[in-house]
Amino acid sequence: MEISKVGVLGAGLMGHGIAQIAAQAGWDVVVREVDQEHLDRGIGRIEKQLARAVEKGRMEQDDADAVRGRIQGTLDYGDLGDSDLVVEAITEDLGMKLDMWRELDGIVKDGAVLATNTSSLSVIDQAVATKRPNRFIGLHFFNPPQVMPLLEVVQTVTTDEESLKTGFEFGEKLGKLTVHAKDKTGFIVNRLLVPYLLDAIRAYEEGVGSIEQIDAAMKAGANHPMGPFTLLDFVGLDTTKSIADIMFDEYRERRFAAPPTLRKMVSAGFYGRKSGRGFYDYSGEQPQAVDPGL
Ligand code: 3HC
Question: Model's pTM, two decimal places?
Fold first, then answer.
């Protein structure tokens, strides 16, 4: 199916990046937020990234202006009506997603493909809230979407071949490596990555090494760009816990169970980079590992 306009729901961590790369690939994009403050913040992030790309000589000013010109911000679902593909990247809360899809389903034109960027919820649970479960797919991007090369394209038991193909074509035009994933909680990457992150916390709890040592070891010993605690703080401890809880609920396996340290840190509001403190403290020039003292 030919895409000319892409709708993005949410201009947060993932949504702003998805809107930016879709506009960079040449599509008109409309990005919707709940209020002006969140919208301005998301659009501001995009403008900052574009300015940085120009500054670094990766993009001409005219091209950056054209990309920005293709992005329309809105608070109104009505502006997504003529989108050919709508990707949601709102809060990872099934109830909120279902309310949103029920409202949007009556607004977005027939034939458009709807997609969720969920990291852990079952895609089918959202698909059946719409009158077009055959036109519903998962498109799982990785943080930061502007940089990470992978896109998981998720097929549910109701997804038709044309919608799946649209998902793959979209990802390929974005320049992503696309992989097909079945609608199993965690898909491919989080199914393997989340137990690894949780196990790093268990290793720390068991005294295998300090936060810095475990991070340094995985960087130098496995060639990972970030150690597990830096990555936990980057993804967000609240997000990781919520993914772990959903996966544990689904599979009932210990490897998906959130360790006590993670639970307590989330209760304390230590969410990682976004809150200024997680396994590291971000208030100084350089992040400093903090002993959670648990
Ligand atoms: N948005 C846009 N661009 C960004 C960015 C961001 N948030 N962060 C970094 N970049 C760009 C920089 O502009 C830079 O580009 P340039 O060299 O052309 O200027 C390039 O990425 C490299 O950035 P830096 O030099 O600042 O830093 P690094 O070399 O350390 O790279 C990183 C940063 C790409 C984040 C790298 O550390 C990395 O790959 N880390 C692992 C990230 C990861 O594993 N993500 C997946 C998380 S799991 C997930 O998302 C699933 C979800 O469901 C939980």
Answer: 0.96
Tokens coding 82: 């003529």
Provide the terminal-to-terminal Cα distance of the chain, rounded to the nearest Å: 53
Phi, then psi, of 46 in degrees rounded to 5: -60, -45
Instruction: Indicate the angle between helix axes 211-222 and 228-235, nearest 10 degrees.
Output: 100
Asked which of 182, 215, 250 is the last residue of a domain, the reply is 182
Domain contains 175: yes
- Note the pLDDT tens digit of each residue in 240-282: 999 999 999 999 999 999 999 999 999 999 999 999 999 999 9
Residue 131 Cα to ligand 1 midpoint, Å, equals 37
Counting from 1 in the atom list of ligand 1, the atom nearest the Cα of 239 is 54
Residues with a CB atom less than 6 Å from ligand 1 = 49, 56, 58, 119, 142-144, 146-148, 190, 193, 225-226, 231, 235, 239
CATH code for the domain of 125: 3.40.50.720
